[in-house]
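Incident log, structure service

09:12 report received: a user says their structure output differs between two submissions of the same chain.
09:20 pulled the input from the user's history:
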Amino acid sequence: MTDPAVVLAKANLRKQLRQALAQVTPAERARASAQARARLRRQPEWQQAQTILFYAPLPDELDLFPLAVEALAAGRQVALPRFAAATGAYAAAWIGDPARDLAAGRFGVLEPQPDCPAMGLNRLDLLLVPGVGFDVSGRRLGRGRGYYDRLLLAVSGPRCGVAMDQQILPAIPTGPGDQRVDRLLTPTRWLVLQPGAA
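09:34 re-ran on a clean worker, output below:
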């Protein structure tokens, strides 16, 4: 059972962060996305990964998706989360052609079409994970439904939180089901986090 004080603290943080993100112009976000993509390209985790879980960005998230197109062109395997109504959870599915294979899913977010093959979450070399906020211990503040936490429970491979610099906080309160990331990517930083850091 999650502590009501933690739930309230998270809700307040989400509100603060969304207000801060609302001040970012589309041009600023485009510049920040390009900086983050360039920074990720330089990392060994990216250079060595052959199977990568991307996300389709929402308007307030950094856009790394051009790297998915690059990865596919280089012969790498690219997957995205897809909502499974039967389980009420997200799983992952491969895509080969973003223009053909993606469609708006349950929450209006682009996800793989039903005929895209499912993939095992333990086959990933790198996961790119959006969030409303992160801290430098890898704690993640999601959108409040727990979908990514349940997805992250089943994965192997480096989990890379992706965020604007103003989304990195000193500390984020967590509950029992909250999953951490072990890398952080912002337009100006790449952090490799210590497992189990407090």
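09:41 both user submissions now match this output. Likely a transient worker issue. Closing.
09:42 reviewer note: The domain at 4-192 is CATH 3.40.50.10420 (Rossmann fold). The chain has one domain: 4-192.
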